[in-house]
Design brief:
alpha/beta; 10 helices; 15 strands; homodimer; 7-stranded mixed β-sheet; Peroxisomal Thiolase, Chain A, domain 1; 23% strand; globular
């Protein structure tokens, strides 16, 4: 049973515990500085499947099945799977949900999906509707290129502001079971923010304003200061988006420079071939479920605000000259939170 | 605060009241037998906008704004908007959410979205996370044809098993405020069911097994008989899908013939030009928020099970030879429910 605090933040009365997390990532991600933190990696974008879309389904399914196994549970124990991905009609998630057989709530929040699913999953658990839920998302470099940009076969060069869609997935298991685990304590749902950006090769710039708006709202609603969190972790702003993020925070008299980290900027360790870094639902999801979940469990990080941002345009809306509406959902994950 | 009953049904402790509903529909829908029950109709698929996609956004936005106004509220009073639509990256919903400014949870459940959004909205309200939420969806004939089939300009003939995507939207306002209104009492989330259908021109046949599976699970979980509900209302099985639905129910020793109605079969009154009837998220949504909501308020119907079915394939998955995974979400809406 939760409550609303401030303008648009919710507080979980019995913070759902994240008793397990699982991340799956590809070769380029394995070669980055966080390669060892992923629970499972694969070397080839097809991963033994005939199509890239089937490969993405496989990485999604693997994360979901593995997180359940890690929690010593069976798919039948899970009340709901909350998830989505970037593909049209979220086919990675929908087909994976068919395989695993868990009642499925399909989501579309673009790259904000990991936070969106964790918020809705936490509501289901804290609201008494479920004992166990799984929240998951994925992205895949080749499926995203084909759908949003150009098929890989064309060898189209990237603009310097572009980011590289991460081939990865992440899944968390949330439960009302008690114990000392990282727990979801608060969440702030995003509003759709659109400052008029139209450059589909610069997603970070489009999404940064949404991230800043949600974070500031979250801090005001909870009465927490800029440095309350050990880490404010954005999903995939990338290096360009991160600069803009700090500029916009500064304009609003906030300073997140001591605590902010961005999964998109981190995942490839600044490799220049990756331009502004990583992007995609799987970027934030695999970093949260890989490196950062382990940091939380080991209590090297005790208070983390995960802020996943999504760009809600489509190739059709972009061709029709529309700007890029963006959203950022935030969820507070804390160890040893006392209420 | 809810609870789980049976295998996968949830029971709302304080059933969220649907204090307002609003439906918007196009010309063909207005000319059907339920034309008078829609709250607002428009005559031209563009509805004054430059693109069909903008027109769909407008019908979505109109339903959301109007349902809030009808409840004597302002957008600022609404904690969350739950919604989605059929378009890639759910651009009708996302852009409408930008205009109205309400914190937004984007969903993709294909044509099951109205039930999915109402279930999640009910969880948010009953769980104490929100006092007011809006759940909405839309579909549009021309945007769906362009995306899933062929642009209208080609004049492609339809197969006899095809259905006509309804240009319409529907929105409900759910609240914890008390009073005698139709209320969401129980919900059963769908599993993804796929019996191997591959004919994308016969969605009803693909979706019927999911509807039957969810309904039977719901009745078993709640201990309710085949005739407990005055109406079991499916979203858009169409006439072919409805025949199969009854056949499958019969195979499972159930008989829903006395209580089943299907929005897709009803909306065009059996007009032969519409082949197997209506389809799309907006079909079930506009019929639920139009005709059936009024029937509930006037207590001509007291127990309604709304079962919206969705086909979770994409044009890409179909081209890759995949079958059509389907889902059905069910929500029980009752007047004067005593617990």
């Amino acid at each position: 049973m939760g409550s609303q605090i401030g303008k648009r933040t919710i507080k979980f009365k019995n913070p759902p515990n994240i008793t397990a997390a699982y991340s799956v990532a590809g070769r380029k991600e394995k070669e980055g500085p966080f390669g060892q933190s992923f629970d499972l990696t694969f070397d080839d974008e097809h991963w033994g499947e005939k199509t890239y879309e089937q490969a993405e389904r496989k990485i999604y399914l693997k994360a979901v099945e593995s997180v359940i196994e890690r929690a010593n549970l069976k798919p039948d124990d899970i009340s709901f799977l909350f998830g989505g991905d970037l593909l049209n009609q979220i086919i990675a998630s929908g087909f994976a949900a068919r395989e695993v057989g868990i009642p499925f709530f399909g989501l579309y929040g673009a790259c904000s999906t990991m936070a969106e699913s964790a918020i809705l999953g936490s509501m289901a658990v804290d609201g008494g509707f479920a004992r166990y839920v799984v929240c998951a998302t994925s992205s895949h470099f080749a499926t995203a290129e084909r759908q949003f940009r150009n098929p890989l076969e064309l060898g189209t060069p990237k603009t310097p502001s572009a980011q590289n869609t991460v081939s990865a997935s992440g899944a968390v298991l949330l439960t009302s079971d008690r114990g000392r685990y990282p727990a979801a304590t608060h969440a702030t749902a995003g509003r759709v923010i659109d400052l008029g950006a139209t450059d589909v090769n610069n997603m970070g710039a489009a999404m940064a304003p949404a991230a800043v708006e949600t974070i500031i709202c979250h801090l005001e609603d909870t009465g927490r200061g800029d440095n309350y969190y050990d880490v404010i972790l954005t999903g995939d702003l990338g290096t360009f988006g991160t600069s803009l993020f700090h500029k916009l925070a500064d304009d609003s008299q906030h300073d997140f420079s001591a605590v902010h980290q961005d999964c998109g900027s981190l995942i490839y360790g600044g490799d220049e071939k990756m331009n502004c870094g990583g992007s995609g639902c799987g970027c934030g999801a695999s970093m949260l479920c890989g490196h950062f979940y382990k940091e939380l469990v080991q209590e090297r990080i005790k208070r983390l605000l995960f802020v996943a941002t999504g760009a809600l345009h489509s190739p059709t809306s972009a061709l029709q000259g529309e700007s890029i509406p963006c959203i950022a959902h935030a969820i507070s994950i804390e160890m040893g939170y006392g209420g």
